[in-house]
Amino acid sequence: MSCQLLAQEELVLISANTRLSWFGSIAHELVGHREAALVDQTQSQLPLEEAQASIRAARFAPSLTSTERYTLRKSCNLSTFAS
Question: What is the structure's pLDDT at 19?
Answer without folding.
Answer: 74
